[in-house]
Amino acid sequence: MSTPEFKQRIGIYPSIEPEQFKESLAGKVALVTGSGRGIGKHIAYALAKSGASVTITGRTKNQVDETTEELSKSFPSVKVIGFIGDVCKRSDLERLVEEVTTKLGPIDILINNAGTNTFMPFHITDADEWWKQMEINVKAPIELTRIVLPSMQERNSGIIIFTSSRAAGADLPWASGYSCAKTAITRFGGVLQTELNTLQEVTFGF
Fold first, then answer.
1. Are 149 and 162 in contact (CB under 8 A)?
2. Domain for residue 65, yes or no?
3. Family per UniProt (predicted)?
4. pTM for this structure?
5. Which of 95, 98, 161, 196 could share a disulfide with 200, CB 3.0–4.6 Å?
6. How far apart are CA 95 and CA 86, in angstroms?
């Protein structure tokens, strides 16, 4: 019996190829937290390519500035703004939403992507560091959602997405804080969607 041959796939699956969504989000306003680099940056890129106005956020100014400039040059017909702030500060979240609304309009798409992880055995993890993961990965997206949601409810329209992880459903060693946080935010999103399902056209994802 011959051994099956497996070929490595390099590239994007057709169903999520950004090109097919080009201009599909024209006129929409998107806010992506933690989008100065990494996953958040690529999400923002895909949204801009789809025609949405995008806000790039983060704590590191040069990353936010570089990504904002890069997207503005790549998609000149799309409005892209940058915001420097700390998602753990309620005042920064309120200022963020106010600035986005003033410069771009009401938020149609909220991507709660900002997050952190400390890979370390629980018994040697500093208590403040452990709880900081809960604050950034759980409290921050919940509080930002609390601020943005009322406007979406008024308009009976909106999309809210939380970046989760397989850590929400697996016992990953050295990631107790991260696993607890991702489990919590996943359950929060599910409960919130259930609460609003029969009343609102506000969509949640993970």
1. no
2. yes
3. Belongs to the short-chain dehydrogenases/reductases (SDR) family.
4. 0.87
5. 196
6. 11
What's the rounded Cα separation, in Å, for the pair 44 and 109?
11
- Tokens coding 121: 């055995």
| DSSP 8-class letter at 53 | E
Catalytic one of 35, 50, 53, 164: 164
Question: In this structure, what CATH number is given to the domain that contains residue 167?
Answer: 3.40.50.720
Annotated catalytic residue, options 28, 50, 178, 179 = 178
5 vs 76: which has the higher pLDDT: 76
Active-site annotation holds for 50: no
Burial category of 79 from C-beta neighbours within 10 Å (exposed 0-12, middle 13-18, buried 19 and up)? middle
> Rounded to 5 degrees, what are φ and ψ at 57?
-130, 155
Distance CA 103, CA 79 (A): 9
Q: Is-catalytic flag, 139?
A: no
What is the spatial distance between Cα 71 and Cα 50, in angstroms, rounded to a whole number?
Answer: 12
Q: Is residue 52 part of a domain?
A: yes
